[in-house]
Amino acid sequence: MSTQVKHRAVQLYDYHVWANNKYFDHLRTLPQEVCDTEITSVFSTVNQVLVHIAKADMVLLRRMRGDSHDVITAQIGEFIHRLEGQNLAAIEAEYGRTNAMYEDFLTNHSDLDQIITYEHPRLGRIDVPLVEVMQQVCNHGTYHRGNLSAMLHQLGHQGAPTDYLLYLYAMNQ
């Protein structure tokens, strides 16, 4: 059993990465066209879900780093443009770059319990602990991995098992 205690923000992100990697590993075992097949669902393709998760991860990281809504909006368009229409390998590579930025942030940020101000032009302003923003990263990914599972079932394939308890078991073996 693992005895290393991680900050909650780090633990949540570790789970998010583990679960995303489980999906990338699983999707690589399926026929390539599965990721681009258009279906009637919340998203039109599996790849669109993956791009959406990647976009949200990047937006939330930039928020935690202190970027303003306007700066993020200006930069995220380029991010999305770079990923739209890309294949699974290109999307996974972008996840790797984003993961490296998260790891750098989580390793070098001096206070993962810090209260940050989160401002949105329509929703207003809230002060929220950074660890709760990381909870949002995790919850958002979990929600959309559920979309992936439903879409894969619709296409005649199984989803990938990514429950948090499975992650805990995997980390303690």
SSE diagram, text form:
Elements: H1 8-28, H2 46-64, H3 69-83, H4 88-108, E1 115-120, E2 124-129, H5 130-154, H6 164-171
Antiparallel strand pairs: 1-2
Helix pairs in contact: 1-4, 1-5, 2-3, 2-4, 2-5
What report would you give on this structure?
It contains 6 helices and 2 strands. It has helices at 8-28, 46-64, 69-83, 88-108, 130-154, 164-171; strands spanning 115-120, 124-129. It has a two-stranded antiparallel sheet with strand order 1-2. Helix 2 (46-64) packs antiparallel against helix 3. The chain is globular and about 45 Å long. The model has no long low-confidence stretch (mean pLDDT 93).
Keywords:
single chain; 173 residues; mainly alpha; 6 helices
In N-to-C order, the SSE pattern is HHHHEEHH
Task: Tell me the strand percentage band.
Answer: 5-15%
Distance between the termini: 7 Å
- Give the proportion of residues in helices: 55-70%
Give the biggest beta sheet: 2 strands, antiparallel
Question: What's this entry about, in short?
Answer:
By secondary structure, the chain is mainly alpha-helical. The chain has helices at residues 8-28, 46-64, 69-83, 88-108, 130-154, 164-171, and strands at residues 115-120, 124-129. A hairpin with a 3-residue loop joins strand 1 (115-120) and strand 2 (124-129).
